[in-house]
Amino acid sequence: MGNKKSIILIVFSVIILFFVLQGAYVVNETEQVVVTQFGKPVGDAITTPGIKFKLPFLQETHFFDKRYLEWDGDPNQLTTKDKKYIFVDTYARWQIIDPLQFYKRMNNERGAYSRLDDILDGQTRNFIAKHNIEEAVRTSNRTPVSSGIIGEMIGDSLTTISIGRDKIQDMIQESANELAKELGVVILDFRFKRIDYEEKVKLQVYERMKSERYRIADKFKSEGQGEASRINGEKDRELKTIVSEAYKTAEEIKGKADAEAAGIYAAAYNKSAQSRQLYSFVKSMETYEKTFDNQTHIILSTDSEFYKYLKDME
Question: pLDDT tens digits for 149-173?
């Protein structure tokens, strides 16, 4: 009799333990749980960690992540307001803030990703189509800087933007949250991961960049040629001034030397008749040397001063 009671007690204990194990579940720090009975939520969502209990067999638990979740969009070719084609790659971070509403609308995270694809891709397409390409690829207006050419500033020719990429991202996030709040989720951050030009637009941008560089290079070249002409002009002017001054100085020195030589000759000539004769003789010899060679023929009068020393030599 005692053994029979023990067996019944053990069986009863096992059954109770089985029901307890079936009804108990553990909620981690990173999880939140919705309990359903026959497919309908029962009570509020459980967001605190610990050991929890439910009715075995009748109730089910649905676990959802409490952490920030990642959404990575597919690159899409979009059209801007000015009819330019660009490739836009996006990403976002989101979180389930109302697990009960999330379960009612999405049932699971896989469905949420599909719905977020529709919301975020659609809003990205809408806002890109409302703005020109400069607004999508630039965050602010650039401050013009000197290119090195007088009066030339790099950045003057850029289109002025009023919105910019950062504000477009914020507008997409805000608009997407309006659509996502009924799903029990919030989009914490949205960013353009990469924006790239379509091939035809790339060529247009490169050609515009090249033409801008060529224009600046031509200005540099033109200014360089003008500066070279100015330097050469100054060089020629200074060279002519130097040569002129040198010629003037040389002529002054030559004049002074001739004057001194004439003074010396005059002084020597005036000293005596003998000196005058010697002077005349020397000057005549110099004249002969400069005038005659072995091919020279000359006819002179016998009373010529030029003939006088030739006659004495005979």
Answer: 555 555 445 677 888 889 999 999 9
